């Protein structure tokens, strides 16, 4: 019994390999749990009840009110500027009711009234020029041409998005890499145990031959 126990004692290298395997297993499980609770579930909720449609511009306008933004002019230099709010109203192929266009899923939460948020410049006039340029783009270059947009009837029935941040590729990577980490950890542990078991059996066969 003592010899059997001694034979199955892991060397320092095997012990480090086992610890690495268990560490990867724990990291994979914690990553899946964290991403699932904090990112994956909200992302799936964003996608639930949503889909794509063809959008056509109905109206492009600037609201009278201006919104504040924060600009950076150095490591310890920050300030506040203002920009006009641009609204792009569209009609989708799924509904005849007008909808407000946004850049992505996050914008309706941070800027629910505006379709375009310019890069915050120090000069208010520069911000206004950026918004005016975008307004001309939607009026003159896009015009009545249909384009692909995305919607979510459950969460934001009156808004549509120009692009998705939570697309299939991001969701796949969110799920894939924690699973790969977990499986690599399991593989390391299993291979270490198998290698040790084979080494012990080989040693036992070698001893029998010498008897």
From TrEMBL:
InterPro entries: K_chnl_Ca-activ_BK_bsu (IPR003930). The keyword Iron-sulfur does not apply. One of its GO terms (molecular function) is calcium-activated potassium channel activity. Keywords: Glycoprotein, Ion channel, Ion transport, Membrane, Transmembrane, Transmembrane helix, Transport. It comes from the Eukaryota. Its main location: membrane. GO terms for cellular component: voltage-gated potassium channel complex. The chain crosses the membrane at residues 20-42, 175-199. The keyword Cell membrane does not apply. GO terms for biological process: detection of calcium ion. It is a multi-pass membrane protein. It is found in: Membrane. Pfam families: CaKB (PF03185). This is KCMB4 protein. The lineage of its organism: Eukaryota, Metazoa, Chordata, Craniata, Vertebrata. The gene is Kcnmb4.
